[in-house]
Structure formats: C-alpha cells, structure tokens
Amino acid sequence: MKSALIVASLPLLALAHGPNPHQHARRQNLAASAPASSPAASSHASSAASGSPASSAAASSAAVPPAGSTSLFPTPTGALPSVSLASTNPTALPLASIVVNAPSAATQAMPTPQPAGAKPSAISNAPGLPDISTLLPSNYPALDKPPPTDSPQVLQWIQDVQNSGVKIPTFAPTVAGGCPANPAAVADQTRCWWTCGGCTRQTDVTTCPDKYTWGLTYDDGPAPYTPDLLSYLDQANLKSTFFVVGSRAISYPALLQQEYMGGHQIAVHTWSHPSLTTLTNEEIIAELGWSKKIIKDVLGVTPTMMRPPFGDIDDRVRAISQAMDLTPVIWTRISPMATFDTDDFNIHGGVTSVQQVLANWEDILGNVSTINTGFIVLEHDLFQQSVEVATGYILPDALAHQPAFRIEPVVSCLNLPMGDAYIETNNNGTNPLPLSGASY
Ligand SMILES: *[C@@H]1O[C@H](CO)[C@@H](O)[C@H](O)[C@H]1NC(C)=O
Ligand SMILES: *[C@@H]1O[C@H](CO)[C@@H](O)[C@H](O)[C@H]1NC(C)=O
Ligand SMILES: [Zn+2]
User: Fold this and answer.
1) Keyword Hydrolase: yes or no (predicted)?
2) Rg, C-alpha atoms of the chain
3) Which residue is catalytic, options 24, 44, 204, 219?
4) Is residue 295 domain-resident?
C-alpha cells in the first residue's frame, strides 16, 4: 500500500527523533492513506476528501487487503472515515502499516534497573528506589490470572478493608456479558454502574477542571513498545499517567522505574485486567492489593489512583477502592454517544482501523471545544499499533492544537503536586487520602 503523504521507509525507531511538532502545523488530509478495498470505499475516500489535491491519489492507490488473512476478526474494509490532522510526525508509520497482523516492529532494548536509592526529581519527599535485582516473580501471583483470595497477603488486605470503616454495598457481582446480561443491575440506580449509563460519583475523576487541559493517560503496560512512547514523550517534553497492570509490572520492572523516574505518574490498573464488577469483594481486593504491592516493591511508593479496566465500576467497586486508598479515574463522557475512548486498543485485534481511531480522536477534539472543563481520553501502550497511532498522529496533532492544550498527568491536571500521586508522599494537609473520607 502506498501513502501519498507519509514517508514509508523510515524505521519505527526513528520515532525517537521526532520533530518539533509546531513546525508542521499545516493541515494534512489523511484520507490518502486509507486503504480502499471497494469502489464504494474509493468513492467515499475521494468525495470525503474533496478539495484536497491528495484525494485523487487516494482513490487511485486503492489497495486490496492481504489474501488469506487468518485474523479471527475481519479486517475492516468498508468505507473508511476521512480525517484531517493539524500535524503528524514526519517519521510516523503510514496509516496503511498500522493494521491488524502488522509484522512486529523492532523493539528498543529494555532499560536496566535504576540504582537502588535513586529518587525521582519530580517528588521532593520521595523515598529511594528499592533494589529490584532481588525481585522474584515466584513471590507474586501467576501472570494474567485473578490472584487467589486465600493467601496470607490477601487475607490481610481483606482484614484491612474490613477495619477501614468503609461500608461496602452488599449487591451481588454482575455476570459476564455487560449490560444486556444484567438487566436488574442496569435498572438499579443505587448501584451507579458506569458501564451501563455512565453514572459517576463525586469521587470519580472523569475530567480535568481547566478547559483545554488534557489529563494524558496510557493503560495496560508497561510493555515492549512502551519505550517508543517514552522516547516520544521525552522529546516532546510531555508527562503522562500510566495505569499499569500488575502482571506487566512484574514482567518489566525496570521499565516501570524508567516511567516513574522520568516524571510520569504511575497508577493502578489491577493485576489481571478483569471487569471488576463481576468479581467478589475478596477478588477485587486481591486484584487491587497485588497491583499496589508490585508497584510499591518496584518504586518504593504506593499509588493513590486506580482505573477500573473497561471503566467497569459501580458503588461496590468504588467503596473497596476507597477502603484501599485509591481514587478511581475513568475518562470523559459527555453523552451516551460521546465517550472519550479512541478505541486504539482494537486496531491490534482487527476490530477497528487506524482511520476510525483517528476519526474518534477528531470527534473527541470537536467535543473538547464544546465543554467548559478539560478532558481525559482512553489510550493504551500495550500494542505496537496503539503506540504508533499515538506517537505518529494523535500526540503531534494535539501539540499543534489551537488553542494550545495543557497536556499533563492526571494528578497534575487536577492541580495537585506529583507527590500526591502516592500514599507515602501525599500532602495529607492539603489533599485528604480517599480512606480519610471514610464514614465510621
Ligand atoms: C462529539 O462526538 C460525537 C461522537 O462521539 C460526534 O458524533 C460529534 O460530532 C462530536 N461533536 C463535535 C462538536 O465534534
Ligand atoms: C500521609 O498519610 C499516609 C497514611 O497515613 C502516610 O503513609 C504518609 O506518609 C503521609 N504523608 C506524609 C508526607 O507524611
Ligand atoms: Zn485496560
């Protein structure tokens, strides 16, 4: 597949040497990169891109999906949305290469562990880093499985939750299958189940307070392509919040240290990434407890924020999170049709296309201009495709946005110091920890 606009031959690793984004603030129509697999798709691409000289190239470079694709999901082939970004990274992979079943790009070498005792410059009262050379995966639960609830650690955390004074609502876990499978739970307003209807409580963080402020977040890492994202963030002088999965943290502890020492915020995203409302209280405690513990063991600090996988939270999950000193962070949702989810996670599996992800991003930008607050968007650093669309397109576009965005980790966008991202360094005088608000 050809791209009329983007140099295809540069290797992915060139992302690390990205441009000053502000030098590229002319609008580029990316419809030219859309693979068009049918006459209908071609005519859509050319009509949607009318006015752009690139549009005829788009229609004529129609490409056919690879024959014999073995994906479980059909490669998206229908009419692809046309997108028009203020800026892209000149070293971005062409859109036509950001697809399901893309060959694995070369990964950067994993960092080596930081010296024990090192302290992040972003937090004045941080304890020194632990020595992770002795970290033993066998001391942690099996990867990507819900941790057992009868281990001594989990029994202790269950006791701690009971002793916290936080009242846990007694409603039953939901069953797998989401809203259609749980009509009674959906109808029960007292449950305040975000997944089905977007209910939130005062304690949920869903936006940043200041207009045009973006609380930047990436979920599900650290992972093999996270170093590419970190390189881009470094050269653009951006800091993010990383909602890390415990199973990834024990797998890539030095990478987690690199994120933290680089001034990014680290927060909890469970041990094995389940839908938390489907779990028992004890299972939720095990998921959150083990992810808090691995982060503390690698960084020496314990996060004060968590993101429920899939945004799946209700008042039972909220109460347990509060009892474990974790504030929930979801993403902005201004109406049933406007949830700030790029769907970048689904390019890897072939469920969506990169063009659709960029169209989702443009919808988010349109909605951002209509609200009086800032915003938080769902994005991921687990798969190469998500990192490629972030570093190649979404972040350069955001940096070129007018009016300019303030792009910050969530704790910073809330106008709190980075120290408030962790229990040990939290300023308890100005920022009460979640548990301190418990009713006894
Ligand atoms: C807001 O987003 C929705 C889709 O989520 C989109 O249909 C709508 O056009 C967007 N609004 C603006 C003003 O861009
Ligand atoms: C804030 O309170 C927590 C929990 O009691 C404590 O661990 C932490 O050290 C306190 N923060 C500071 C800066 O003293
Ligand atoms: Zn996730």
Assistant:
1) yes
2) 22
3) 219
4) yes
